[in-house]
Amino acid sequence: MTIEEIKNSLKNGPNDKGYYGDFGGRYAPEILMPNLIELEDAFEQAINDKSFIDEFDYYLKDYVGRPNPLYFAEQLTKKIGGAKIYLKSDHLNHLGAHKINNSLFQILLAKYMGKTKIYCETGAGAHLIATAACGARFNFPVIGYMGKDDIFLQSTNVLKAKLFGAEVVECVDGTGEKGVLKDACTSVLKAWSSDPKAFYCCGSAIGPHPFPKIVQYAQSIIGKEIKKQILEKENRLPDAIVACIGGGSNLIGCIHDFLDDKEVALYGVEAEHSSALTNGSIGIMQGFKSFMLQSNDGSATLDTKSLASGINFYSCGPEHSYLKSIGRVNYTYATDEEAFSAFQLLCKTEGILPAFEPSFAIAQAIKIAKEMDSDKIVVINICGRGDKDIDTAERMLGDKLGK
Amino acid sequence: MINLENRISKIFKNLKSENKKAFISFTTAGYPDEDTSLEIIKSVADSGANIHEISFPHAEAQADGPIIQLANIESIKNGINFEKVINIAKKSREYNQDIGLVMMGYLNNIFIYGIDKFAKEVSGIIDAVICVDLPEDVIEERLLKEALKKENIALIKLVTPTTSDERIQKLVKDADGFIYSVNVAGITGVKSAQIDMVNSQISRIKKYTDLPVVSGFGIKTEEDVKVFSKSNADGIVIGSGIVEKIQEVSKIETNKSKIADFVKDFCSKLIINLNS
Ligand SMILES: Cc1ncc(COP(=O)(O)O)c(C=O)c1O
Does the C-beta of A222 come closer than 6 Å to ligand 1? Predict the structure, then answer.
């Protein structure tokens, strides 16, 4: 690489104030500033400490079960009749989602920093169970904040988290009536402000600097594996990578290692009714500047809805807003109906039960693959398995399931 | 044009000569509704409050506890927006030219409205701005500070229990108006402030600045005010305590001026306790 290429690399991450272009930053109350600076320093120290990284790698392999396969979905490919479709299998990780890559990293960081208590937020509960499990393994009490609606929709994850010893706190918005991921995010920031000695394990590439950077770092293992595996199998890079995006951790994890490989088209797929990158405007909430679905004067988020709790989020990580602004990543959305059909299609063609979240990516990838020649390659990140969603699937399918 | 820097420093200078502390009230614009919230501000001014914080509501208010959060949501539901809050500030200023007026809230409203446009719009109306989520290392901090400075409006700095002496020195360096000392680690209206900790934090701040230091968070009741009248702060801020009273009275009373009178009585009692 030339010096010029290194300087212009899209992988360089945020500047020293946490900005990706105009996005990101550290819009935090003063009470949290010392914590965020302490965290940033510890993170930089840890990733340059070989023993820390060795420990992370060890647990990624023996606890999480990495590397997971890059699986050629031959049946799905035939059915679609276009590009070759590969599935990155983060649903096969311990606890069935990509979230554990990040939880493991941050719990190890908490240990490195000598912290004694962990707070986290969660949407679908995937980040909650991953953090609860790592908390159990490394002897940390974990307190998880979860929206009231999500507690209902993802009850099996709540149960798992409790089995791992975590405490789950129900969150609602100011009306006290409903609660989703953004309410969990605001609640956990308040909890952390009230208990600043604790460690906050942020579940997606959102929040004030350095969280987007930490989460990107931890999740980038996904893309590194994809690159190695596709070169082994196909001796070339894929033509497209597709992943779903709520806050954007699995997507940034998949694509970070490919940002400078301009021949690889990158796609992020939001849910139709929480499509901040397609329909949002620039705003500043919950500690970061990004595209968001917000009221005209910026006083509130707009109500969002999605079949998938994990991507039911009014905004997205700031690095994604930057990658949109420079046109490096294509951001689109899929509807609940499209995702639900894609969910069923993967079950039927490959015997793989995806979570609802990656089903949005599958839906979009199918559209893309269909238009491509058979010598092209598309990779989809199956960032979670659907066990947590089968009750909802059953409710939706009703009688059709028996026949 | 009234010189704003003079208004706030005049308030503190006058109080100092009388050996008194500033009483700083806080209410949520638009709560329980737009008109009543204006009447409340007028009556708070009548009660003799020295400075009033007009809070512009935000639904994801990171620093606010359940009491203020509920007021935020209710007022947003009732149709308040940032433009209307500015109007409330204008009408408050027309009504009373002596009280210090501070607009306080979260950056996003000012960011969306436009930083320069905001500064011009509130010029001659308000004396200071408090922005909860605006630390020094974000771009908008400098932009807002400069825009406000042109209009003689102070951007108030907050110091909290987690702020080190080193950070205090940095924060107060080009601070203006007064310093806001946040008494507790946490959100509004939940924990109670402890006088020893409050005093030691204020002493830490006063080592590095001659600006007045006001103390807020965790002071709610008439009793609390009595206790903190003995603190070394130059003023105290009562927020959740007042908003809670508004909540209580507006459940049983719909008449605007009766609600406003009730709040005036409450503030009057607090002021007596502060300077007794
Ligand atoms: C399985 C799964 N996929 C995706 C997401 C979305 O998060 P992100 O956009 O950070 O990957 C979640 C979040 O809870 C999830 O549980």
Answer: no
